[in-house]
Design goal:
The chain is α/β, with parallel strands linked by helices. The protein contains 27 helices and 25 strands. The protein has an eight-stranded mixed beta barrel, surrounded by four helices. Bound molecules: ligand C2E and magnesium ion (MG) (2 copies).
């Protein structure tokens, strides 16, 4: 009969093994190894069923210490206890093996009762400890796992008469952070956040990790304390060393119904959070009964949506898009409105999310595309200077196998071609099902459609998406420009994303532009198009027609800005040393220059210095970021320019502009300064000029 636990006995003496087998076989299944190598093989193969190891220290092929060492590296030890067998009086090996992670030892000659007792103890300890550990704790952050959190909370709720609240937290743009700084930085942030949260908790208050970057926090209800703590957590999180402004949002459900399941409680906290999701400057939202009332209202909407299409209650508005340089209308977006006979005029925010959930969005979208195409057809006939009109495509449309036929059918009906419209696809479609969307978008592209990625940066944006999806235009989410314009961190990220997009050959549209300051900033960042209330709100067809007529109209919003010229300089055997803490900046430079130099990349000044020390004869040019951890660009230049022998190496500073940093860089010996975001053309030319000049004036021996 199969026993509950299996023991591995590793001993080279057959006699010893036989003794132990005889003693233990009644109670355990036994595996035997006669040397260390065999023991490791068995552990590797059957580790998951082995409950304990009895290990002799003096083994051939690989001794017991080595076995312990390998088990530690392979992380077997935390879960499989080892009992070492020693000869009487050999205290030294006993201490050594315990220090290497063994759980206990038994001395030869064996006392059968002691052997049985030790093994029994160690196995029951292991079973309870590891079981509890696995069930209780989230491996990464050490807070409670969902299951255990649920159990703990429901226990407290049942037995306590106090009032509690359930808080749910979200880190904005967490995916983007991982893309920019790596998975381990993301993990580090979660570990840090868990520590911060735990610091604020009292007894009977718990934190659990609910999926990727979300924590649920169960606390006594005290509104003032909760909000104060939320503020403190939001401040402390920004001490985490990453060059990105970290924003947290919290949903709170004050538990007024103790009969709900714990999951339903944090779901209510999630519903509350959804009300403020992505809204700048809003950090906390409470669950209120109007959220339930909203569900009732939604039901009413569902009841009348089909009639609404039939009775033409939906209207299509147009919001012009402007070219930033010339400020002329370069396109427009078709946005739906609902003019309901009883409820009045409704904005899409009130019904689109609902239609996306219940699938009616595909019907509505078909209607909007049809009305839009009809308008374009008539404008063409009437001689208007027509611009391409963007229509929104929801993710459900993309999963519809007939999607392409439907849209082609509508174009045909109105004698239009794919180039007459742009398709706006929202980024969440990608996160839901990357494979399918890539496939559909590729097909659309070959048919001549122009694809815009909508709301980029609003949710789970991933930079991966940019490289995988063959889009033409990137539409930045409003959140980017509606934040605090003086926040350098978010501006750096915005400018970085714009330059990355442009480097990938996409045009960039910024949405939600309301002030001249935002326009100035976007101009500096070389953004191509803008859409926003500052220029024009969404408007009915007739108004938009006048708008089109009044404006000069330039052609196509997807038209390329400029051609990228390949530099003409010869490939050398020299090294370009790139020092920048952002992986993606390093990648951009690397791919631009790898045809011309051997590329070496480092992410801080100290590493750059170390590399130069041994390799200065090879280095032909240094591309230096100013803001880096450990040693920044300025300090690097100070040290570097002290060495005479480095005189023939030019430094090109690549950084955000600002007169001060430009002047300071040159004073410290920079050869040139290129402002981020950079344009490929410019940077290739600059580097070419600098390197050519240095090759002439400082010929290598
Ligand atoms: P979207 O596609 O990102 O559209 C831009 C939204 O930003 C529009 O909201 C527009 O009115 C608003 N907006 C434009 N400029 C500014 C500004 O300067 N400040 C502010 N605060 N807002 C500005 P709208 O019309 O309420 O539409 C909301 C969302 O509903 C759209 O976001 C889109 O995702 C969806 N939507 C609208 N019409 C349709 C449609 O026909 N089909 C589908 N599938 N979705 C639609
Ligand atoms: Mg849109
Ligand atoms: Mg948008």
């Amino acid at each position: 009969m199969k026993k509950e636990n299996t023991i591995l006995i590793a001993d080279d003496s057959e006699l010893n093994r036989d003794f132990l087998v005889e003693l233990l076989k009644e109670q355990y299944d036994i595996l035997e190894a006669s040397d260390g190598k065999q023991a490791i093989e068995l552990l590797e193969d059957k580790g998951s069923i082995i409950s304990a190891v009895i290990l002799s220290i003096t083994l051939p092929a690989m001794d017991g210490y080595e076995v312990l060492q390998i088990m530690k590296q392979k992380r077997y030890l935390p879960s499989i206890p080892v009992i070492v067998t020693t000869t009487d009086g050999d205290e030294e090996s006993e201490i050594k093996s315990l220090s290497m992670g063994a759980s206990d030892f038994i001395r030869k000659p064996y006392n059968p009762v002691i052997v049985q007792k030790r093994i029994e103890n160690i196995i029951s300890l292991r079973n309870s400890a590891s079981l509890v550990y696995h069930l209780q704790k989230d491996r990464l952050t050490g807070v409670y796992s969902i299951e255990f959190f649920n159990e703990k909370v429901s226990g407290v709720i049942k037995s306590s008469s106090e009032k509690y609240a359930m808080v749910y937290s979200e880190i904005q743009n967490f995916q983007l952070l991982k893309d920019l700084y790596g998975e381990s930085t993301g993990d580090g942030l979660l570990v840090y956040m868990a520590k911060v949260i735990k610091y604020f908790l009292n007894d009977d208050e718990y934190c659990g990790r609910i999926g990727a970057e979300h924590f649920a926090i169960f606390v006594k209800f005290d509104k003032e304390r909760i909000e104060k703590t939320i503020n403190e957590i939001s401040t402390l999180i920004n001490d985490y060393p990453v060059k990105m402004n970290l924003t947290l949002q919290f949903g709170v459900y004050v538990i007024d119904n103790k009969n709900l399941s714990v999951q339903a409680m944090y779901n209510r906290a999630i519903l509350a959070l959804e009300k403020i999701k992505g809204q700048y400057g809003r950090h906390v939202a409470y669950f209120t009964n109007d959220i339930l009332e909203k569900q009732i209202r939604e039901q009413e909407i569902v009841n009348c949506m089909e009639d609404a299409i039939r009775e033409q209650q939906f209207q299509v508005y147009f919001q012009p898009k402007y070219a930033l340089n010339s400020e002329v209308v370069a396109g427009a977006e078709a946005l739906v409105r609902w003019n309901h006979p009883e409820k009045g005029f409704m904005n899409p925010g009130e019904f689109i999310p609902l239609f996306e959930r219940n699938g009616f969005i595909t019907e509505l979208d078909k209607y909007v595309w049809d009305v839009t195409c009809q308008c374009i057809e008539e404008w063409k006939e009437q001689g208007y200077p027509v611009v391409p009109i963007s229509v929104n495509v929801s993710r459900t449309d993309i999963y519809d196998p007939d999607f392409i036929d439907i849209i082609m059918g509508i174009l045909d009906k109105h004698h239009l071609v794919p180039q007459d419209i742009h398709l706006e696809i929202t980024e969440t479609a990608y996160t839901d099902n990357p494979k399918q969307i890539v496939e559909v978008v590729k097909k659309l592209k070959t048919m001549g459609f122009i694809i815009e990625m909508d709301d980029f940066g609003s949710g789970y944006s991933s930079l991966n998406m940019l490289s995988e999806l063959p889009i033409d235009i990137l539409k930045l989410d409003m959140g980017f420009v509606q934040g605090d314009l003086n926040n350098t961190n978010s501006n750096n990220i915005l400018s970085f994303i714009i330059s990355l997009a442009k480097w990938m050959g996409y045009n960039v549209v910024a949405e939600g532009i309301e002030t001249p300051e935002q326009i100035q900033m976007l101009r500096n960042m070389d953004c191509n198009f803008v859409q926003g209330y500052y220029y024009a709100k969404p408007m009915p067809r007739r108004e938009f027609e006048i708008h089109m007529l009044k404006n000069h109209v330039i052609g196509n919003a997807s038209g390329d800005d400029e051609e990228i010229i390949d530099g003409q300089f010869e490939k050398s055997n020299g090294v370009m040393l790139i020092a920048d803490d952002l992986l993606l900046n390093r990648r951009i430079l690397e791919s631009t220059f790898e045809k011309y130099f051997e590329i070496v990349t480092v992410d801080n000044g100290v590493e750059a210095m170390n590399y130069i020390k041994d390799n200065y004869e090879k280095v032909e040019v240094i591309m230096l970021d100013l803001v880096m951890p450990v040693m920044d660009g300025f300090t690097f230049m100070k040290q570097f320019r002290r060495e005479k022998k480095y005189d023939n190496i030019p430094i090109i500073v690549t950084s955000q502009g600002g007169e001060k940093s430009v002047a300071k860089s040159f004073a410290l010996g920079a050869t040139d300064f290129i402002e981020k975001p950079y344009n490929d053309n410019i940077i290739i030319h600059r580097v070419q000029n600098v390197v050519a000049a240095f090759r002439k004036s400082h010929p290598k021996k």
